[in-house]
Amino acid sequence: MCEELRSYLRSQFALGRTDYIRPCNDTNSECLIKATQDAIPEFVKGLPHLGVPPLDPFTIDKLSIPLSGLKVTFYQGKVSGFRKCIVDNVISELEKRHFVLEFHCNLTIKGGYDAVGKVLLFPINGEGDAKIKLTNLKMKLDINTKYIKDDKGVNHFAIKSYKYTFDYGDKVTFDLQNLFKESKELSNTVLSFLNENWRTVSEEFGKPIVDYAVELALKTIEKFFLVVPYEELINVPIPT
């Protein structure tokens, strides 16, 4: 994309973004929580013309999850629900270059899968449709930021490093069709076991999916930061 077109698209986005980006005049958490909450439904739509992909839904092209005695691979998964996330807390420490975001969501993952290995001593060689629902997933992102200038001297946020913690919340529901190709009854039995023991299963099974989602979300936020100047995100001068 030529620089002239990129600049034009940025300017067009700038003209229309104030309807959902409402910069705070300080780092008061109450304002930051409201501003973040108001922005989420539009932010997750992405800015494809500027290289910022959507987050609701986003696609898991292929993700292999090696478990104890079992390998599960997801294909063409669609993750939805981020647009309805509820922001619980936002902390912005500009001088320390530190940012914290806490939120909770109901998420749904749909796609195809295959699974090879053993569960409960039963050999599995299944494939079919998969649906996983996470109810009230809680997450905390802890981000170290930095300030950069683009080639025009415009200030931007950037991400230096991050870490996160999460809790699966109230419930994780699994719906994996055709776990045992030869036996629908056995498939239903194992599926019932997975759902009755959802927390134990999720703690072994779910982290690679959450890792994938968080990495994608942070990359998207980084691209967003490169498009939107610092001054459009908060009305506080960059600390010297």
From TrEMBL:
Highest taxon of source: Eukaryota
SMART domains tied to this protein: JHBP
Keyword annotations from UniProtKB, A to Z: Biological rhythms, Signal
Keyword Signal in annotation: yes
GO biological process, alphabetically ordered: circadian rhythm
One GO cellular component term: extracellular space
One Pfam family of this chain: JHBP
Transmembrane residue ranges: none
UniProt family annotation: Belongs to the TO family.
Protein name stated in the entry: Circadian clock-controlled protein
Biological source species: Papilio xuthus (Asian swallowtail butterfly)
Lineage: Eukaryota, Metazoa, Ecdysozoa, Arthropoda, Hexapoda
